[in-house]
Amino acid sequence: MRGMDLLEYQVKEWFGQIGIPVLPSQRIDHPTDLKRLKIPYPIVLKSQVSGGARLKVGGVRFVETTIDAIAAAQNIFNLPIMGELPEVLLAEAKYDAEQELYLAVVIDTAVCRPILLGCQEPDIDLDSYGDKMQHVVVEHEFSPFYARRLALKMGLQGKRMQTVSSVIEKMYYLLIEKDLDLVEINPLGINSQGEAMALNGSISVNERAISRHPDIALMATKMHNRYNGNGKNQDFKEWEGLELHGKIGIMGNGAGSVLTTMDLVTLAGGKPGFCLNLRHASPLDTSPTTFKTRLEKALSIMSADKSIQVILINLLGSIPQAIEIAEVITEFVHHYNSEHKLNGTRNGHKHKRDTNFPRLVVRLAGSDLDGAKKELTALKHESDMSIVMTENLDEAVSEAVRLTQPLVYKK
Length: 411
Description:
Layout: E1 4-5, H1 8-18, E2 25-28, E3 43-47, H2 54-57, E4 60-63, H3 66-77, E5 89-93, E6 99-108, E7 113-119, E8 134-137, H4 144-153, H5 158-177, E9 180-190, E10 196-198, E11 201-205, H6 207-210, H7 214-228, E12 241-243, E13 248-252, H8 255-267, E14 272-277, H9 291-303, E15 310-316, H10 323-347, E16 359-365, H11 370-382, E17 388-390, H12 393-403
Parallel strand pairs: 13-14, 13-15, 15-16, 16-17
Antiparallel strand pairs: 1-11, 2-5, 3-4, 3-5, 6-7, 6-9, 7-8, 9-10, 9-11, 12-14
InterPro entries: ATP-grasp, ATP-grasp_succ-CoA_synth-type, ATP_grasp_subdomain_1, Succ_CoA_ligase-like_bsu, Succinyl-CoA_synth-like
Protein name: Succinate-CoA ligase (ADP-forming)
GO biological process, one term: succinyl-CoA metabolic process
């Protein structure tokens, strides 16, 4: 089993248990739960999804009345963020921060030691933080000295230095106690009295820790079941992508294109299934692969899943040996047609989907893909299978969703 990232409400529970200050909050499983809210207004409602950028897309709302809170919760529950709909919201008291900081404790695999990180700017990108991020390597047995050293390097003094260093200590002890890879607070709010509050946080659990901690193993099992449905298709577990349990499988040649397609499918009323980024192979696959072989493998595995009714392929830009895309899809279509006709001859149900092969919707955009588009357009004309070809992503999404809708027969 891989490591896992906790949702915010789970992070806040762990913070509270170890003494890191958190705001009064309440888990919301349904909008009507807000009628029994125990937190005084105004409050903030937060979507509980693994993806980021909640605030920018409307996944975080400030509300002042029960009526407004229920309406906001209904909207958030139906708002996909990076292709994921929340099953839980977090209702939290509002907090007025005079200053916001970034803190993290992380295991640095390069030096095999814990590192304390801190910055006086929240929402900083760890990949490009430059000189703004301060750090302290825990070289020997941990003591409060390390936490105070980081707070001082961040330019904090007096009560604020003491408050922040106390939070850093607790973050470190949580990291060690639970065998974590990362404990992050972003941001840590400081009010006018110099008191701290963890306003948002992240926790990454080391994969090896899951089996060593029964409480974490139980949490991992529940999260695994949530995202993986009935546990089918273990072939996909090492791919770069998401395993959902809808009817529309999605493939793309970049994380951005895959996530955008997922969001559009959800907004159009469809349910994404397996979503794969074909740009990269499995990080555990040591054998050399090409885009062609990855596409072949993905089509083969996805078509074997009876829950997938449509495969939506969204490719754009430049792809090595782009003409081979058409060859792979052509072979897939011919295989589909031969199986479909054979099965229809056996039982007489020509229009019933009796094989496991899903329908194809293909969106190719970019001049490098002109050759593939030409071949697949010809394939569409010669084939009795409905393979949809388009350069417009909205049209591709609309068609994919339509193909998963139940047929309505007129009397």
